[in-house]
Every structure is written in structure tokens, then in C-alpha cells.
Request: fold
Amino acid sequence: MSVSKVSGVLFFARNSTSSSLLYDILCSLHPVVSLGGWIVNFMIRVRHGEPFSSGMTATGFWLGITVGRVILGFITAKTGERIAVSVYLLIAVGCELIFWLVPQFIVSAVAVSLLGFFIGPIFPSTVIAVTKLLPSDMHVAAIGFSAAIGGGGAALLPFAVGAIAQAKGPATLQPIVLALLALLIGVWLTLPRMPKHVHQS
Reply:
């Protein structure tokens, strides 16, 4: 790696806007990976579902993420990332509360699919935020560095969640995911106001 690239990464790591974006990506990956990895176990052991139907619930979650990124991407482009993602996260918290507090299999299956739908656009919206808030010469380094750190962190949290679930039961998944969503809202709201166009200088 050249000296200029190393300097760019160090500048990115010390930049407050960059750090907030990094933590935002990190937090947005955690609920997805944690929930996606444990939803089948939760639905079988806590909601007493059949293995096949519980597996289909996980499929609905990931399908919701995919569809959400496609459909909500158009809405986000019109309303702006800051407002749109804030609304998506608030709705996601509501879906998570329903998933957690309503002890019915069908309700949980629908709620977790909607949760995936509204979580889906967060990662791509954060990437767009990077291009709007940081100079163009930092875009590649910023996105690559954030995605790498976020992906590494996303590999650690499911392990921790698994250890907790093994000791306390899979029901402990819900407050953890809810806390991560609340943390993500807080981090997202710390970002400065975004311009309408990509930062060019």
C-alpha cells in the first residue's frame, strides 16, 4: 500500500464524519446478521413453529431485505437519505417490538419480514451518505474501509449473541436487536446535514 493510501486511510479514521459513517455501517450490519442467523432457532424454540415454516420465516426476512432495497431505494432518492432512513429505522423498531412482544407465529413471521424490508436500505443509503459528505478522493477508501471493519464486526457479534443465547436462551436475541437498532438511530442522527448532490471537492 502506498504512502498516500495509508495517509488517506489514517485521515479517514480520524475524521469525525467518517467515524460516524463507519459506526453506522457497523451497526446496520449487526442486526441483520444476528437476526438472520438466529431467526430459525428463535421461531422453533420460542414460537414453537415447525422446522419448515420456521425456515421459511428466515427466507421472508432476507426476501424483505432484498425487496426493501429495491422499492425503498426510489423513495429514499426522492426524500433524502437522512429523513428516509430515520423513518425506516423508527418503523423497524416498531416491527421488532411486535416480533418480540406478540407471541404468535404468524404475527412474528410477518413482523420479521417487514423488519427486513425496512432494514434493507440502510447499508446502501449509508454508502450514498459517504459520497455526499466526504470529498471524492476519499470515497473508495472510506467505503472500502467502512465495509471491511463493518463486515469484521458483523462476524463477531453473532458469536457473542450465540454465546448469550446458549446460556440464556434464544429469547435474549430480541432485546439485543432492539438495542442495536436504537444505537443505529442515535448514530445516524449524529451525521451532519447532507447535501443533495455528491461531494466533488
Remarks:
- The chain has a mean pLDDT of 80.
- The helical segments are 3-14, 16-45, 51-79, 81-101, 105-119, 122-133, 139-168, 173-189.
